[in-house]
Design a protein that fits this description.
The protein is of the alpha/beta class. The chain is 34% helix and 16% strand. The longest helix has 17 residues. The two termini are 40 Å apart.
Length: 452
Amino acid sequence: MADMQSLLKERAAQTKKGEWIVGYNYNDLAIKEQRHPTRADLDAVSTEHPIFVKHVSGHLGVANSKALELAGITEETPNPEGGKFRRGPDGKLDGVLEGPAAQAPVSAIRPKPTAAQYEEAVRRDNMIYAAAGITTANNGGSPTVDDFFLKASENGDLGIRVVIWPNGRNAKLIESYGEKRQGAQLDKAGKVFLGPAKLFADGSPQGYTAWFSKPYFKQLPGKPADFRGFPVFNSQEELFALVQKLHDAGWQITTHTNGDQAIQDMIDAYSAALEKNPRKDHRHILNHCQFCRPDQVVAIAEKGFVPSYFVTHTWFWGDIHRDMVAGPERAAHISPLKAALDHKITFALHNDTPVTPISPLMDVFSAVNRLTSSGKVLGPDQRIDVMEALRGVTINGAYMQRLEDKIGSLEKGKLADMVILDKDPTKVDPVKLKDIMVEETIVGGNTVYKRA
């Protein structure tokens, strides 16, 4: 904690009093104290600057007293839907804001990136993704950046393709697409496409905001023994109504689901919508789909849902999930890829950048080995072979995005998107899959990245 405070003090010394200091990607379970910073920790850095630090999951953040004051969060402020203002043993706000809804008042008053900064971010990230062997990425849930992708496509700054996942709870944004639906091309160059409407059902398991049917394996200090996280929607009625509305309007839906109860809520909501209004090829997505129970694998197969597994959790948080979050039995079944194959489920694999670095080859490594960062195997029975893992980051991802007629495999009539690697993934030692280098990334027949 002292190291974090030292970094923030350095920034405070360089920042005009009253201006914001923002930090990113702290991990409470990976630092010595194994706890979140509090408003007191941040007040010790400065009470003259508003300070906000964001958890590595993106689902929590911590504000100092000045930031809470400016955001209008007081001891009397009620918890928002799908979020919590955490309190300490004394019953007073400790500065930890659990869930995006709780962070919203602070996010609303923090300085926004300028247009020039957004444009530079698109240019920079385009090269980062291309260098990682990405030909098509997706941008999930943001209502603010579509125009910047379109502009980057028009002026040539966008080399890869991007699929936009609009926020499904933003009615005005959803309506702005008119009759356009998932798979629609939004630009002239064929670089920007419309994807499914994005929802959130819960938060982060490592952030203790994921929604489980049973309590967390080991509770953090201050949490009750029966704590099992919380949902984003306050009521099933509200969730079911929104899903039905989007489904009836012809939208494909993708929902952030980590805990098994969040997964169940969405299986139930999607199923209810399909019962009232059957659609053969809906392809509704369970995004992340981490703690997916065996019975839920069966239900996903029966209903034709598409899981997109955040399989690199095995490496980045596997030890934490096993020893703290969920215990050995539940943790061994995260991202149950072999079970999905056995039930003939078409699934995609993804990273959740910036939560983890962008790397399709890291997805393949994790799917094949299921190694944790300490070198232990988590759920060996859920390992799959290299070719199935490669399908998860190529043709299956295209299928999920409803673009399999254009991309995802090398076939006559499709767009010439391909990646050249320095080694054959099917012939290297499986533990070295993540070390394969990208030599060249080609999109539409044009080289957008070449290793020096």
